[in-house]
Amino acid sequence: MVSSSSLLNCAVCENQLVQPITLSCGFTVCLACLPSKSLLEGYSFVCPVAECTRESHLFGPDLFLDYTIEQVIKEDFINITTMDDSVYNSATTALQCSIGNHLLEHPVTNHCGHTFCKVCLLQYKILNDSCNKCQKRLPSYQFIQKQTPNLLLNNLINIFNGIPLFKNIELARANQISNVTISFSKLNQFSYKNIPIYLSDFAVLPSQKLRIPIYTEQSRLLFQKALIICKEYQCLCLGIVNKDKTNKKGRFGTMVKVTAIEQRANDMLVSVVGMDRFKVVGVNKEAEEFIAADLDMQFESYQDLGNITTISQHWTEHKILSPPASPKCDKVAIASAISPLSSPPHSDGSPKPIYEFLPSSSPIKLSNAIYNFISELAHSTPSISFCSTVEGLLGPVWLDSVQGLHGPLPAAENPVAMCWWAAVVLPVSNSDRYHLLETISLEERLSIILSWINDLKSQWGNCRRTAISSASKVGL
């Protein structure tokens, strides 16, 4: 049915696999094609596969045989042309995820040699630290999240999915680990019923990174039950809405991706990043810390996103970046308390919003205005300000700090990413951020951010005049 002459070949010697080992880069090789054990015990590992592009690998010296591929080779069902119970049982047994009890999807292989669906393993890892087949220690959550699929098994499953003879294998999909799934594609379903939603004390924005502490076993179990699967990006997600004393219906929130989990004794620290917004259209159940709600996803316009979307990456992860070059300084210069700020110049009178000066209020022009403001701050002389509300808000140290926390400054030509990045780093109130979250038009959102910037400039000007006036009164 499928020729094993090429499918089951070693990625190094290109011969039929013998004692297959699947590396964390996704390639499968013969045990004899690995570097010597003494090299595996060292601090560096040169992958024997020429096509490998991974910078790091999870490796031994104790690397174990790939159990699933061994079964495929042993049973040899891929060369059988007639389907019967024996062949069917062999295929479903060999290609089954023992966590979700269904046919493997996006299979990842641990260093212990056992293979699971990626999202099944991610969810299993939250409450378990050992492989359910051999009890060997599992990799970290963040390593699994970045794990490359087992390329051989992935190709094999894709081939089976296109062969009518094996369509019955779909019956093996018995128990999904979660029946709650979501899509971040506008072309797919965007209305969802009875979705578990976390309630937070502040508004979470798209592309925002944050950590959620979980202290009790009950909270950990609740967290696991609230997880939502996104198959497009092979990740686990949570819906988060800002708490409000009134009815939650009509509130806007953000679907976040779980990127890492850090276990600390009985506590757990969950790292997430904001993806897309949603609106609560109905509340079915309400408790102190969560609700079960019907929601509509609020996707960014394809026109606003331009050409940055790809099949494998969400727009928040797309790398079109052009941060301003920070000037190099060996020492941090300290400006005197009455020195003029090196921020954008202040003009007397009540300044108009920045966007009113633009010849056209297109998102790209508005994004460029925000980019130029951030760039000016990044090139300002580092100083200790006389005003505590803006102290440390100038210079390359500030830019380096916020980029370390929130990711690189997006390119000005990426107005969607610029909108949310600026909203996270600028010193504004939670109510201001929520107002931005519920504003649908990108152009309006960018205009709101420019009005924040205009207010900040005005505040800096007032602080400067107050400082100069105070200094003159004491004869400085």
Automatic annotation (TrEMBL):
Q: Which PROSITE patterns match?
A: LON_N (PS51787), ZF_RING_1 (PS00518), ZF_RING_2 (PS50089)
Q: Could you name the domain of life of the organism this protein comes from?
A: Eukaryota
Any keyword Nucleotide-binding? no
Q: What positions does the domain RING-type occupy? A: 10-51
Key words of the record:
Metal-binding, Zinc, Zinc-finger
Q: Which Pfam families match?
A: LON_substr_bdg, zf-RING_UBOX
User: Where does the Lon N-terminal domain start and stop, copy by copy?
Assistant: 192-457
Task: Look up keyword Protein transport and say if it applies.
Answer: no
Q: What is this protein called?
A: RING-type domain-containing protein
From the broadest rank down, the organism's phylogenetic lineage runs: Eukaryota, Fungi, Fungi incertae sedis, Mucoromycota, Mucoromycotina
